[in-house]
Amino acid sequence: MDFPDMLASSIHDIKNSLGVVSNNLAILIGDPETKFSDPQRACLLQHEVQRVNNNLIQLLNLYKLGENALMLDICEHQVEDLLEEVVVNNEAICKSLGVTLDYGCDPELSGYFDLELLRGVLESTIGNAQRYATSRIHLDAKYKDDYLVIQVEDDGAGFPPELLKVTGIGHHMIQMLNVSGRTRLGLLFAEKISRLHRTKERTGFIRIENGCTLGGGCFQIWLP
Amino acid sequence: MADALFAQKKFLVVDDFADMRSLLRGILYAIEAQHVDLAANGSEALTRMSKKRYDVVLCDYNLGPGKDGQQLLEEARHRELLGIDSIFIMVTAENAREMVMAAVEYFPDSYLTKPFTAELLRTRLRKLFDKKANLSNVNRALTTKNYARAISELDQLMVTSPKYKADYQKLKADICIRAMRYDKALRIYQDVLSVRDLSWAHLGVGKVQFLQKKYAQAESTLKELIEHDRTLTEAYDYLARAQLAQSRYSEAEKTLDDATKISPRGFQRQVMLAEVATANGEPEKAETAYRKAISVGKQSMKMQPAIHAGLAKALAANGRHTEALEVAGRISRNFPSHPQAQLYQATTTVLVKSDEGDEEGAAKALEGVEKAMKNLDPASISANMGLELVKTYAKLGHKDKASEVLHTVVANNHDDDIFIAEVKSACTNLDLGEIDDASINNIQQNVVKTNNKGVQLIQQGQFDQAIELLHQAADGLPGNRTVNLNAAKALILKMQKQGAKHEELQQVRAYVDRVRHNGPEDWRLIEVTNQLQKLVPTD
Q1: What DSSP letter does each residue of B44-92 carry, written as one string?
Q2: Which domains does chain B have, with CATH numbers?
Q3: pLDDT tens-digit profile of A45-102?
Q4: Chain B hits for A73, Cβ within 8 Å
């Protein structure tokens, strides 16, 4: 067993332990008998647990990708169904953080993607945005230049400038992991996943910029 | 947000951890569910489901020892413990990728990755109830195997709710395959591919080509697909089948090796690998694969006595005869309600003892074979069992009996190319005198010829001649479903033109009963019984 395999099986173990933490926390929070001195902190804990969980899933998927063992299941899906689900799944946490989370999307919009992988990308991007948003996170999807563009933006301070220089170019992404500040793993994962989506002529990519419509960080995944 | 929708529904939560069960129940109460039952494992869940119709089953994939979530789903659907409008949600720890991509008969209606919130479950359930309501007529038609009806309902849905056209198209192609309307299925896949290059549609094309027996075409389609999508294990499965049907055993083994490396949990795949390794003379590899299959499929309804028999023979080939006899000796106990279990136990014991050099013991065990045979209708002997019998008789030098069974089993399964290839491969290792590939082809061709001649006579309107020919063939081969169905069809067509007679209706029912007895799952029965019901006797 080499190091990556050991790492992968450790991740499984950590994930299981985390599951116990997460479930018990959820039971405590959900139980009206529980008296927290500061309920806000309990919610933040839950939020962090969720983030660690997302990170572990991403690590596992990146490991599988490296081993050529990541299964890809690209089908046509309704985009609104996905946006609605990730928004409702994060609503409670956002509320406790004092952040509004909403989405805008043509109900007829459909696209070709791997549903669960893209869900992972959006969950972790929202998880990131939650840390930096001042009061709002907004999701949006539309077609641009024949690509399906799903965008997650917030009204926080935005991405640090050194990050903005390197997006969209695969191998530079690794270097980003050395840049301190925002969690890079999520972006690395998003970048890899975007590239798995391709047609004969075109390949998906991600783009990050600042100040789209809300003035903060703006993440986009472009899918052919 | 009050939700009267969930208040009336009956929920079942299946999870092996008590904490998790109460957490899930809490989530359900949070979305205003009122009727929530809990089960700690697969068998408890099945007991509950047999007593109460649940609208929603929320089931964890990992259920500890015993059945896993997928095996529970398969048994529940098979035993019709889930209504057509019931929703089964599989809860998984990571993404459900491997499960989604596996070649399984029944898919859950949805997957949820832990942890998830009450709000997500609420949104998902609302959509699922809508979707089920939309597909209600389609699913109703499917439960009675009325494929034509299911397809026309889907065609209507694509017009009335085009939003989910992509899902409906996929489902329609799937139903066309089940109904053996291969050209129609192929057209759907090609339509999809004309818009977008999608792996599942390429896989569909390969599947159809395989089923149409265009093996070389299927092979090139699937190889190209695998080239682009290395992790699509189902493509490997069909590629291996196409290679087996062309008697290319070592290539099939390589294909299955690659697939089991990607996904070792596939039960059917391990069984295939074990069988191929046996045919290729690699008993050690066969033993490993049989053991894996038995451990993965231990709790599955798909476990068969043939797989235990296979393990016993692999053990014998590896020189471990005592262990082999133990495995063989437990077959009837392991499969108490399987009609052919005793026979498998007996034939395996003969083969193991004979391999060990214990001729006396083998001859004695053969008496067990004869005894088990007396309790069985010869027409109901499966292809695999038939081949076991051939090997058993041949091994003990009963050439006449071996070739008699061989004739019957080849003639009864003349249109199963993978099986015919297996028979040929087995015969090269058996001393059966004049039986070789050519004579096996001959048996096969004779059935094909008679069958085709019958169909041709029907088309020419010469019903009496067709009926005479097919009647004789069907009586000679009561276990051959194709021939019996065609004999029934010839009579039906004649009655449709010339009026129905009591005696002929009786004859059709006899053919139908034979087919139903040997293959209750055979979709072709539906068409014949539907036509039969429309005939009113005139005499």
Answers
A1: HHHHHHHHS--SEEEEES--SSS--HHHHHHHHHHTT-S-TT-EEEEEE
A2: 4-139 (3.40.50.2300), 449-534 (1.25.40.10)
A3: 888 888 888 888 888 888 888 888 888 889 999 999 999 999 999 988 888 888 999 9
A4: 97, 100-101, 199-200
